[in-house]
Structures are given as structure tokens and as C-alpha cells.
Amino acid sequence: MHLHTSIVNTALRSLWLIALCMTLSACGTYGGEQLFVVGPEHVHPDDALGAKFGVKGSVGYDRIWDAAVTAMSKDMTIIESHKPTGTIKSRIGAAPSGKIVGFWISPTTPQASQYTIDTMSIKPIGFNSRNGRGWEPAVVDHFFDTLGTK
């Protein structure tokens, strides 16, 4: 009888652990932040914790796009790129737990008087992280360095 109880208890503990692991890995949130995994759908332009920058239109959209692609490729992997909407999203680290960085350019017309760069990043939070949102200053610096303007 004692062996049977031990096997049942071990099986129940195993099932509880499996359920806990599945729950924690299932794109859950805590306090509005993603737990353990993030995807490209979690970054959006105009996020309050992101950042906006202006670029004079004299450089043109194609040159701005090329500089953005270069900046978003440095030490990251582009996971979404759509030039007609000015959207680039990259991942830092391994999927699905790496940080996602978004970069948006508007307007997307060949020539404009001013272009706006909107950037935002989100990383999954774990037990030792307090804030998973923000932006990546190094990406913006690399963008402006590649573009040749500041």
C-alpha cells in the first residue's frame, strides 16, 4: 500500500509541475508585461515607453529605410520587414524569449519635409526583472551613424 501511495504522489507532483510549466510558458502576463516569451505582435508604434525621433526629409525615404535595415540587423535578427509601411521588427537573442525591437518610419513617401522614427522594445520579464518595455538607444545611434546625420 505504501508503494502505491508513493507512486500516486509522484505522479500528481509531476502533473502539477507540467501544468505549471505550461502555464508559465504560455505567453502569460503579469502587471501588463509579458512573462517569459514575447513576439512581434507585442511591439507597437506610439508606445508611451518607446521613443520618437525626427529626420530631415532631404535624405529621402530609401536612404532612411536602408539605414534602418542596417541598424536593425546589427546584433539582431530581422523577423519582420515591410518597406511599404515603414515597419521593421528584430529579435535580440533566441526565440521565443529574446527581446523584440520595433522600428517604424513615417511617412513612407519618397520625399517628405520630415520623417518620424518611432522605436520601441519589449523583453519578457521573469522573476528578477522589473520592467520589460522601453527602447534601444544603441539601435538609434547606429541608425543615425549609418545615415550620416545627427
Commentary on this structure:
This protein is of the alpha+beta class and 150 residues long. It has 3 helices and 8 strands, in the order αβββαβββββα. Strands 3, 4, 5, 6, 7 and 8 form a 6-stranded antiparallel beta sheet that branches. It has a two-stranded antiparallel sheet with strand order 1-2. A hairpin with a 7-residue loop joins strand 6 (99-106) and strand 7. It starts with a helix and ends with a helix. 27% of the residues are buried.
Structural features:
two-stranded antiparallel sheet, elongated, alpha+beta, 150 residues
Kindly state the mean pLDDT as a whole number?
Answer: 78
The biggest beta sheet is recorded as: 6 strands, antiparallel
Oligomer: single chain
User: Counting H and I runs of at least 4 residues, what is the number of helices?
Assistant: 3
Q: Structural class, judged by helices and strands?
A: alpha+beta
Tell how many strands the DSSP assignment holds: 8
Q: Which range does the strand content fall in? A: 25-35%
Roughly how many Å apart are the termini?
Answer: 77 Å
**Helicity level:** 25-40%
**Residue windows where pLDDT falls under 50 for at least 5 positions:** 17-34
- Cα radius of gyration in angstroms: 21 Å
| Helix and strand sequence | HEEEHEEEEEH
**Shape field:** elongated
Write the layout of secondary structure elements.
Blueprint: H1 2-24, E1 29-30, E2 33-34, E3 51-56, H2 61-73, E4 77-82, E5 87-92, E6 99-106, E7 114-122, E8 133-134, H3 137-147
Antiparallel strand pairs: 1-2, 3-7, 4-5, 5-6, 6-7, 7-8
